[in-house]
Amino acid sequence: MKRIIHKTYFMMKKESFILGLAACMCAFTSCSDKEEPQQSQDSRVISLSAVVPNTSRGASTTTATIKNFVVYAFTGGSVLMDGVKVTRDGASWVYSPEAYWPVTPVNFYAFSPEINVSADITGEGGGNIPGYINDGTKDLLYSVRTNVIQQAAPVSLNFRHALSKVSVLISSTNQRINVAVSYIKLNNIYHQGSFTFPATSTLASTPEAVGSWSELKGKTDMLTFAILGEEDKVELTPVPTDYSLNTLDCSYVIPQPLSKVELSESGYTGTYIEVDCEIFDSATGAKLWPNANTPDYMLVPQTSTGRIIYPASSDNVKAYLPGHAYIYNISINNPSVLDKIEFDVTVDDYSIDQM
Asked: Cα dist. 231→82, 169, 179, 220, 291 in Å?
């Protein structure tokens, strides 16, 4: 049985992010990071603050772990801040040279972390990050704040997640078998695309202001768990476990449509999860699967393992959306029906935690 939990990951409950020269770090509920922002002595200096909602699973960027971000600012058709890197310094954020408030309103665009791609941001209706290459390990954040006039308080930038987050949890509750896993992969996903900022502010009150992706290309497989040697195989337990955590830490995916899985003479097509494993009798140690009756398409060439395929899509989930998290909960319990696995799918939203 497989269950997909789909959680709204933009405006989520896990990440709060404070941007700027004079910003306090709003920590998520378990943190005690409550230091007050340090204001510049010159009231004309622009200071920034930001909020990133908390997420429910590890590896995502949080207020406590964010290290840097990049800011663009425009006013009256002119560039005020051109890709300025802002760096965390204790309870504050510093950048150089300092920018000063003009008499005209300012539009701010920001993303984190710093990436090796030039952004094309004009301030007149948005901008984009072309040709972004995703390696699966970085949580890309973005924020927009438009028509801001001079103020004493830091400019509040509400960050959202540009990518989708995919986690694969696997378990086995059948005490009569031992399942030894070698590899887990998410197959046939795009790893390159262009991100477009929304044209309006990403405020907590405007959840509809969401960025979008286009020009997707470069389909590949994302490896989330892999062994180096036979001794590295993991034996499943009754507790659903994400074996990518603290190993490869690959979970971020460019939002994209999911294609149906089909099997032909040349192999599988479509978007799917692949689990390479062996199944043994827990009492005798005898190997139960794969065996002499296992079809060739379920065998991993030049190894002793078998390959189980799980569709990434379902009736409820046809695409990965920006700012959403998808958790696949896979149980491997019955080696005699591995080619007839069915799925029970539910969808949950992340709750919103205002910081």
From this structure: 51, 21, 14, 28, 21
User: How many C-beta neighbours within 10 Å does residue 179 have?
Assistant: 26
Ramachandran category for residue 9: left, alpha or beta (phi over 0 → left; psi -120 to 50 → alpha): alpha
**The pLDDT of residue 58:** 54
HEC profile for 209-267?
CCCEEEEEEEEEEEEEEECCCHHHCEECCCCCECCCCCCCCCCEECCEECCCCEEECCE
Each residue's pLDDT tens digit, 122-151: 776 678 899 999 999 999 999 999 999 998
Encoding tokens for residue 70?
């990049």
Distance CA 344, CA 338 (A): 16
Residue type, 18: I
Is there a contact between 344 and 315 (Cβ–Cβ < 8 Å)? no
Which amino acid makes up residue 234? V
Walk me through the domains of the chain, giving residue ranges and CATH numbers. Answer: 10-161 (2.60.40), 164-200+212-340 (2.60.40)
For 223-257, write each residue's pLDDT tens digit: 999 999 889 999 999 999 999 998 999 999 999 99
